[in-house]
Each structure stands twice: as C-alpha cells, then as structure tokens.
Amino acid sequence: MGDSTSGKLIKRINEMERNLENLTKEEWDRFFPVELVPHNPEWKEIYKQEERKIIEKLGTQAILRIEHFGSTSIPDISAKSYIDIIIEIPTARLFDEEIIIGLTELGYHYFRQSGGLSDYMVFVKGYNLKGGKEQVYHIHMCPKENEMWNQLQFRDYLVANPKRAKEYEHLKIELASIFKNDRVGYRIAKSEFIKETLEMANQTASH
Q1: Distances in whole angstroms, Cα of residue 88 to Cα of each of 95, 126, 204, 207
Q2: Which residues pair with residue 98 across a beta bridge?
Q3: What is d(CA 3, CA 9) in angstroms, rounded to the nearest whole number?
Q4: DSSP 153-177
Q5: What is the pLDDT of residues 52-81, one digit of tens each?
Q6: What is the CATH number of domain 32-206?
Q7: Nearest Cα to 202, choosing from 164, 138, 131, 153?
C-alpha cells in the first residue's frame, strides 16, 4: 500500500474518531496488513510478562489455564509478531463483565466471537490507529470444550516436528504475499494445512 493511500486511511480514521470496535473489514486489512518477520527468541519472555499481568489482574479463579500459542510460540519460524494467548475460563464466566472490564483496564479491546467455533471472547491490544508500532497481543478466552484448544495440539506437534514447522513457515510466506491485505483470506488459506497437521498429531498420539 502506497504512502498516499496509508495517509488517507489514517486521516479518515482520525477525522471520524474511529476505534478498533467499528473499523470495517477493509480498514482492518489495509491498516494492519499480513507481515511476517523472522522468529524472535524474546517472544517467549514477552508472553511471560503479559501472562503475569493478566493473572494478577483477573486472578486464578477466573483463569483455569493460560498458554502461549500461534506461530510466535513455535521456534525458528517466521510469524506475524503477535503474541497469541489462549485462556481457559469456567463456562459460567463466558462473557463475564468483570473479566471484560479487567482486561480493558490493561489496555485490551473486547470482541465477541461467534460462528464456526463455539462462542468465545477475543481481546486485542497494541493496534495503533495512528501508525505507531506497538507489541500486539491477542487473547482467546473460552471454556475447555471449545475447539480453539486444538490449537495447542497443533503447536505441540510443530514444536516436536521441526520439518513440519518449516513446511508451515514456507506456506505462510507464500500466502502472506498473496493475502497481504486480506487477513481472513490468509487465515482460511492455512486451514487445510492445520487440519492435516492435527490429523497427523492424532495418528501419532494413537500409536
């Protein structure tokens, strides 16, 4: 995206006093394109620091389990530099106002996710609408029954199988060039690889 296009988008957002909650899909895609960077060994510690803040804010009664997942949790592969966090909560705390307020106080924006998977809570932090670079965090919060937890099986299989992890990296690099300004398309295009990898993980576990 050229500087003039980016500048117009920033101006439009500032003029309309938009926030993350009411950006259109087109604005998300243009303002926050898919960009991969080499693996950063510091991502692990960045996650741990954020984990401590979240647990301190919400407490262990709300947080039953918290994990770092996504590509930044897999050694030696390129990734979008986002720290993906998945948190298990009691079913009764899904869409809990106290949790939403607590994470908002830590600088997160809340979105209710529905469709496809069971409903769950998404929180994001670090998306700077004025163009500055900040560390981006995504929190996916749901009970243990939610299919989102399959992501940990995917993570663990790639950590244990570096060759498969490199295949994933090569796919991501190819797709990032095709879907640079289509975040949903990028995610969907990876789904078959993820499905196949989960099948491989299940076969390994059954032996």
Answers
A1: 13, 22, 25, 28
A2: none
A3: 10
A4: HHHHHHHH-HHHHHHHHHHHHHHHH
A5: 999 999 999 999 999 999 999 999 999 999
A6: 3.30.460.10
A7: 153
